[in-house]
Amino acid sequence: MAKLTDPITILKGVGPARAKQFAALNIYTLGDLICHFPRGYEDRTRLLTIDALEVDCPACFRAMVMNNPRTNHIRKGLDITKVQVADHTGRLTLTFFNSRFASENLIYGREYIFYGAVSGDYLGYNMTNPVFEAPDAPALATRRVLPIYPLTAGLNNAAVLRTVRQALSICDPPREILPGELRQRFGILGADTAYRAIHEPKSMEEAEQARKRMIFEEFFLFSAGLSLMRQARSGRQRPAFRNLEMEDFYGSLPFTLTNAQNRAIGEILEDFRRGVPMNRLLQGDVGSGKTMVAAAAAFCAARNGCQTALMAPTEILAEQHYASLEKLFSQLGIRVGLLTGSQTQKQKRETREALAAGDIQVAVGTHALLTEATTFQNLGLVIADEQHRFGVAQRSRLAAKGSDPHLLVMSATPIPRTLSLILYGDLEVSILDELPPGREKVETFLVGESYRARINAFIRKQASEHHQCFVVCPAVEENEELGVKSAEAWAETLRGTVFPDLRVLLLHGQMKGSEKEEVMASFARGEADVLVATTVIEVGVDVPNATLMVVEDADRFGLSQLHQLRGRVGRGSAKSYCILVTHNRNAETLARLKALCKTNDGFRIAEEDLHLRGPGDFFGSRQSGLPAFRVADLSLDLATLKQAQEASAQWIARWGDSDDPEAEELRRRVGELFSRAEGTMN
Ligand code: ADP
Ligand code: MG
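^ thats the input. predicted complex w/ adenosine-5'-diphosphate below
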């Protein structure tokens, strides 16, 4: 018997060239090959008589070749082979294009099994390019459920199929990791059966069963991984903070905190007291005041002799956080430092020295905070803002800096509870479900192109009142996607013809980092009236003076994304507006967008979005830091996901730290899944 770790080159027919093709699919070992699952199946099990064949419905039939195949050379590159076949119910003409295989292998007087679809016209039935096999040959292309594999150049489905089959014949598939009792409860196939059935199912039902098992397994491993992370951390110690006196902090605020803010701070302080590192997700809609909750945590850490690192996804955001925290903390005798990639070497060095010496209590920055070069005297709290950019693996890397610091991750993307349980199963969750008082709802309108003149007049009106306006387009350049407004071209139009008297800036993701920062900072300083942008402005930038958000081709965006965009306005005291422009006339699309005009509740919008588009879109899957699931499609499989999660929680509770071989195998597989996640990030 071969091992799963053996290279695929031990298989017959896999030489260096083949191996290279498989490598393009990330397949190097027998194990990789056996875990290369079909993306779908073709049901070729129906065997009919010729008279029962239905037009355009592919099926198998057994028939005899009634003449010698005749090939006509039509022109260069086009040969047509015709042959008559028949069974006891009727006759059929088969036509093959450029098929030497058919002309040489179909023999007059012999029977074959064919698979194809008839097409009918006034001349009678015909069939083009059916596949065929001898009745006594192994059923490879007919009389079976055919798996359809993800392929790559030079590698066709039949080749993958043959290679996988060979691998399964000399090597046992991965071992069972799902306890029998659990498989029984959820009606799940055993590993050996499932791995074989996913590649060679006897029926479509069996294929579905096998797929379900694999999905369950992946989710089970994923949830188990999160639980294990949580368990490992809960075993760790961190001296409890003793000084939880917050009066000075509250006294220095220019406003009173909302109930939700107070509750979240209470939950954090409770964590600080427990003597274990905190792992908390703070979820709150845009404008719900997460920064103040973070500040409260940093204040408490400082009063307990610990440093805080606050990480933001962009430099602009880091600078904004720095400015607001600096203002607040300077009255409280707490020093704040800024550390970003674009600072001079000297600035960075000075900040780093002050951090190492403990002269700075709160460090604000971008990923630069995470590099080796930064050392802390006593890092006690790490805060990551706009959490969805930080995946599972980054979370654990963060925690490794300092001696198990407390961790607070903040997300402005309201995540439906179902999903947050899944994605952040290793975190406790605090929710800010309340906006600071006096905040007026952003008035939202859905309009068509016929409103263009009015939209322009409205932009002009905002500008005349010294307010600013965002205009968001779905594409960067012209022609990128046909019929969609591009930021570049639209900025040009607005600047040149529509608003020659206004100051129009352009911002998009293809600009250099420093350029983007400069444009955004300039707009934040009030140096322009209109900022035409792509969704790069989605993430947390604060321009309180902006009162209007216009989204062009709004149907191109997800609801949550639109909600995020809308959150860029309504941050000051002036009444704010959001205008969604669309050409789309589809009733469903319009209903979806109208929902946004009616509610400002990010969680409800998120639920709706999840329901309509699935979680892949929800996060822009690359950013979510999720493991690369092989079979599981979150949008379709939420129910399975829930089952798997419950099951894994029970399993971990009972077996988590056992040194039983089964438990060890499970931990190894979890590690594998998460290292794959790490590999797909960055
Ligand atoms: P987000 O949750 O989107 O990060 P911020 O923390 O940036 O929100 O807060 C948005 C704005 O609301 C900031 O200008 C902040 O100063 C203000 N703010 C926060 N909490 C309160 C409060 N309790 N009362 C009034 N204004 C507040
Ligand atoms: Mg924020």
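The radius of gyration is 31 Å.
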